[in-house]
From TrEMBL:
InterPro entries: AKR_Detox_Biosynth (IPR050523), NAD(P)_OxRdtase_dom_sf (IPR036812), NADP_OxRdtase_dom (IPR023210). One of its GO terms (cellular component) is cytosol. GO terms for molecular function: oxidoreductase activity. Gene3D superfamilies: NADP-dependent oxidoreductase domain (3.20.20.100). PANTHER family: NAD(P)-LINKED OXIDOREDUCTASE SUPERFAMILY PROTEIN, NADH-SPECIFIC METHYLGLYOXAL REDUCTASE-RELATED. It comes from the Bacteria. Residues 22-327 form the NADP-dependent oxidoreductase domain. This is Aryl-alcohol dehydrogenase-like predicted oxidoreductase. Signal peptide: none annotated. Keywords: Oxidoreductase.
Length: 331
């Protein structure tokens, strides 16, 4: 479980290790993959650039990298394996639940039976070049609550066998977050959270159960970087251009107008103290709860350096947080 420490920019993990309170999300470095013609990745990538960016993150003190078995149809795990391998000073988290074909780069389906979970673990261990998975997360967000018991029974068994050190659920549903919080080895919930979406119900569960809040979408899929304008579309192979029901920040490949207006309302507040917009968005998460742990995505060294710079500047002040709440109408 997470233990609050004296520093607002470090976190103590379930294994007693204290690390900087910022990880790196590795969806984008997996490259393209698809469901039919629908893109699920973030466009083309340069693996050498990805490895260089990972090396730079490690050099800046980052010790947590989050990926999934389906990102890039397994390619994200392979790139991480190449860059990190079995280093014991780095925490690598991955996920299971969505099957992909590495040859065709196509999504195959969602699975959660024991045989699939065990195959997925072995594949992830091989790709990542790890002896054990530090954190394994169930990737199916809305999986039926009652049926999830068998899934986490399997994860408990894998932990007892030494295949994984800890496990969690990547879900946006507080009831799912709470369901398995009492199990030994259940340490985290990965969920959407950012300035636009403070998810108070989820934070209440996480704080009440002593879990780690791993924040995906901390930059609202790039909208909170300030790099997009109303007339700037994403690339053809970019998931942000897909008509997916959960794609709220972008519509038809462009930033959604309602979120653009929200960004304008808080831009000056987030860039206080010499922060970039990206750093302000991450600083908001650091201030939101002592249990939050943002994992912004990256593809370049420059993005890694900007993300990591949020730690140096620390959390936003209580006054700025209150002003942001007022500007966005958060309770």
């Amino acid at each position: 479980m997470l233990t609050k420490t004296a520093s607002p920019t470090t976190i103590t993990l379930w294994n007693g290790r204290e690390i900087p309170r910022l990880g790196m999300g590795c969806w984008a470095i997996g490259g393209p993959f698809y469901a039919g013609d629908t893109p699920l990745g973030w466009g083309e990538v340069d693996d050498n650039e990805s490895v260089e960016a990972i090396d730079r993150a490690i050099g800046l003190g980052i010790r947590f990298f989050d990926t999934a078995s389906n990102y890039g149809a397994g390619h994200s795990e392979e790139v991480l394996g190449r860059a990190i391998g079995n280093r014991d000073d780095i925490v690598v988290a991955t996920k299971f639940g969505f099957a992909t074909d590495p040859e065709t780069k196509q999504a195959i389906g969602a699975f959660a039976d024991e045989a699939f979970i065990r195959r997925s673990v072995e594949t992830s261990l091989r790709r990542l070049k790890r002896d054990r998975l530090d954190l394994l997360q169930f990737h199916i967000n809305d999986f039926p609550l009652e049926q999830s018991d068998a899934v986490f029974d399997t994860l408990e068994a894998l932990r007892a066998e030494g295949k994984i050190d800890a496990f969690g659920w990547s879900t946006d549903y507080p009831d799912r977050a709470a369901r398995h919080a009492g199990r030994a080895g259940f340490v985290s919930v990965q969920h959407t959270m950012n300035v636009f979406d403070p998810v108070p119900e989820m934070i209440a569960v996480i704080e009440g159960k002593g879990l780690i809040s791993i924040n995906r979408g901390p930059l609202a899929m790039g909208l909170l970087t300030g790099k997009f304008t109303a007339d700037k579309p994403v690339g053809a192979k970019d998931v942000r251009g897909a008509a997916l029901p959960w794609m709220v920040y972008f519509k038809d490949g462009r930033m959604a107008p309602e979120f653009a207006a929200m960004l304008d309302a808080v831009r000056d507040l987030l860039t206080s103290g010499g922060r970039t917009l990206t750093q302000g968005a991450l600083a908001w998460l650091l201030a939101r709860s002592p249990r939050t742990f943002p994992i912004p995505g990256f593809r370049t060294v420059a993005q890694v350096e900007e993300n990591a710079g949020a730690l140096e500047k620390g959390p936003l002040s209580a006054e700025i947080m209150a002003a942001i709440d007022a500007a966005l109408g958060h309770a």
